[in-house]
Amino acid sequence: EGYVVVEFTVTELGTVADPVVIEAEPPGMFDSAAVDAVLRFKYRPQMSEGKAVAVTGVRNIVRFEMEK
């Protein structure tokens, strides 16, 4: 069990770009699985003056837990 905090950019299309692991417990164990998962996320793009814009510095925590 553990978790990974990933920081990334949400693009104008709502996809994820440039994911970086910020924190992980245990270190290195789930990093690649978390990054692979985050790359499949889809978001509604942020709008500014009627135009979609990229948002940097978005963080998400991915938890890995055994089923109880």
Strand content bin: over 45%
Q: Tally the helices.
A: 1
Query: What is the string of helix and strand elements?
Result: EEHEEE
Q: What is the end-to-end distance?
A: 12 Å
E-strand count: 5
What would you call the shape? elongated
- Percentage of helical residues? 10-25%
Biggest sheet, spatial arrangement of strands: 2-1-5
User: Radius of gyration in whole Å, from Cα?
Assistant: 14 Å
Overall mean pLDDT: 97
Largest sheet: 3 strands, antiparallel
Helix/strand-derived category reads mainly beta
Model description:
The protein has 68 residues and is mainly beta. It has one helix and five strands; from the N terminus they run E-E-H-E-E-E. It has one helix at residues 31-38; strands at 2-10, 16-25, 46-48, 51-53, 55-64. The strands form two sheets. It has a three-stranded antiparallel beta sheet with strand order 2-1-5, covered by helices on one side. Strands 3-4 form a two-stranded antiparallel ribbon. Strand 3 and strand 4 form a beta hairpin.
Structural features:
two-stranded antiparallel sheet; mainly beta; elongated; 3-stranded antiparallel sheet; 1 helix; 12% helix; 68 residues
Outline the fold blueprint.
Blueprint (H helix, E strand, L loop, with lengths): L1 E9 L5 E10 L5 H8 L7 E3 L2 E3 L1 E10 L4
Antiparallel strand pairs: 1-2, 1-5, 3-4
Quick recap:
By secondary structure, this protein is mainly beta.
